[in-house]
Amino acid sequence: MSSRKRHRFFPYVIALTVGACVTVNLYFPTAEVQKAADQIVEDVHEGKNEKPSAGGSSRVGGLDRVFAWIGPTQAQAQEKKADIEVSTPAIRALKGQMKGRFPQLLPFFRSGSLGETNMGLAEVRGAESLSLADRAKLKRLADAENGDRRALYREIARANNFPDEQIETIQKLFANSWRSQAAPGTWIQDDNGSWARK
User: For 68-100, how does the pLDDT look when each residue is reduced to its tens digit (9 = 90+)?
Assistant: First the structure.
């Protein structure tokens, strides 16, 4: 291919590349899902009422203006998706079950018998010092909690028309919230898989 022909293709390659990046951001507003996760975890942990979602406005500036003619920018895409749906009957029911269970889980988190993973699940750790009855109770509670958490992540994806491939991303965003709001003494798994007590 001649140098002249290559130069003619170059602008199209850039436009397609930028367009592809914008499309990914259009379908999954990470910051808004993280805010929703923070609020749900706070509600489960502290029993606070849901706060209304505030859809803030975003400005388009700098390089975003240059490519605005290609399609929606990340800022515009997030503005359109600012209201993440987290109040379906199924989500409210799951959140209520977790809120009701949390007082039973809290002593296990604080004692270090239960930890928060990097995938947004509760994992039994260091339960050897517990009685057999308490170990059985902890396993039952952790299994129920993880079942509800997995169902919550799937329901958030469904309610917001996110593809199934985004469920793992939702889990990781919720993991950030569960870990950051965990009680002192809780085992926390970092993004690399290492564990430390909070």
Answer: 444 444 444 444 445 889 999 999 999 999 999
pTM above 0.90, yes or no: no
Read off the amino acid at residue 34.
Q
Q: How far is CA 59 from CA 27, 47, 56, 75, 149, in A?
A: 19, 34, 10, 7, 34
Beta-strand pair 195-197/122-124? unpaired
Q: Measured between alpha carbons, how far is 15 from 37 in angstroms, rounded to an integer?
A: 34
What is the count of structural domains for the chain? 1
Contact in structure between 116 and 176 (CB atoms under 8 Å) = no
- Residue 116: phi and psi, rounded to 5, are -105, 120
Q: Which residue has the tokens 């994806």?
A: 157
Other Cβ atoms closer than 10 A to 28: 20
Closest C-alpha among 101, 127, 102 to residue 112 = 127
Q: What is the C-alpha separation between 57 and 21, in angstroms, rounded?
A: 21
Q: How far apart are CA 53 and CA 47, in angstroms?
A: 17
Cα 81 to chain centroid distance, Å, stands at 15
- If you search the block for the tokens 């988190």, which residue do you land on? 109
Q: Count the residues in the chain.
A: 198
Domain that holds residue 134: 3-197
Residues linked to residue 124 through DSSP beta bridges, in sequence order: 114
